[in-house]
Amino acid sequence: MDLSPNKCLNCSKTISGRSDKKFCDQYCKNSYNNQSKSAEEQFIKMVNAILRKNRRILKTLSPEGKAIVRKDIATQLGFDFNQFSSIYSSKAGVYYLCYDYGYRAIMDNGKQKLQIVHKQDYMTDFNPWKYIK
To answer: So what's the pLDDT on residue 84?
Structure first.
């Protein structure tokens, strides 16, 4: 049994207590784990936060599951058109989905608008190879 005092992996302070303890307190444990996350994991977390925000905006703008709204309203609410979780192509056009809410870009009397829909069961069949020529 090693009786020498352990050092906190985050701040290097001497740790008292159990011999297998790695951190002096919860703050150091959280700080160490947050710093050790890779840039890739941080990127995934950021994209998921954007997707959740986009979904929340689409749901808010479409309380009954279907709506047409001006693009600038979504933009003002902070919608990020660069992030979506999947796509669905139909005869009407391409829908960009943020989890279970989606939109497609439309022009209405020269104005950019979004047709927002709640995802339907039939919208799960996407085959990207059908677009290859």
So the answer is: 96
